[in-house]
# Entry
Amino acid sequence: MEQTQGGGGAERRRRVVVVGGGIAGSLVAKSLQFHGDVTLIDPKEYLEIPWASLRSMVEPSFAERSLIYHRDYLTNGRIITSSAISVTNTEVLTSEGRLVGYDYLVIATGHADPLPVSKSDRFKQYQAEHEKIEKASSILIVGGGPTGVELAGEIAVDYPDKKLTLVHSGTRLLQFIGPKASNKTLDWFKSKKVEVKLEQSVDLKSVSEISRTFLTSSGETVNADCHFLCTAKPIGSTWLKESVLKDSLDHIGRIMVDENLRVKGHPNVFAIGDITDIKEIKQGYLAQKHALVAAKNLKLLMIGGKEKKMASYHQAHSAIALVSLGRKEAVAQLPFTTLIGHIPGLIKSRDLFVGKTRKQMGLNS
# Structure
């Protein structure tokens, strides 16, 4: 499916193809749409603000602002609703067999996370998840990273009478940041009567459909009316493994980039967001920074600027993180301190940066 918006001049503009319409790909496409002939290839018709998705599970109406049609911000570009399945030095191949030529390519496929094609179907998915939470008396969450912790926080605050259990295979919650933040988060969950089981996994295949009993790796049983799997998703680079970029992938499938965010060995190909091998915490605000650096460099290259003037991306060395805990509280790890409660909650938890993100995409907040 293709949508073309805006008009083009008589002079041929450089063709920029962006693969992936997540938080990084959408921003780079939006930033370049009046500087080149931009095509966005994405398997869904909308951008989903990822850090708002968990709030939408307990409050589906929240998704009315966090799900954005690509056509709403990409007003002067081409949108192809399809998956990319391979790439050559000059073209991207889509799942329908279509070849899309490019002068410059930006890869922003992040993690593999199959979502409904249409915005309306994604909204229905949120409504179904909300109904599942509403009907359940007991809920199991598997995974104690930021996704599992934030979902548990949303449910614990909105549904304090439900029995909530969080099982995590690691030695502490939120292992991507420091132990102080982990310990404060664990104490917060205890204050909300959430049962946290660490250093355990759950065999979801062994669930008894009749009793809804889950067995952990330590032999403990957890009774729950429903469960949510919040573990890491695979990197979205499978489609590149038999392509001209196969040698640009590291041992875990991430794309190796240089300081300008160009794919090593391919001067007209950029990679941004979670799919890159940049050694930093994979967070949305950093993916947005990637997008802005890549857009700046592409604007320079498209007007024939000198490569030595390209901007460099400076990776984040300090682990700054802000994890929401329901609607009013959060845990924040800053360079010199760790905070939990209403003060960090004022920064993120009420709106989850949705208004700020919409404004960045040129939309009403």
In short: The mean pLDDT is 94.
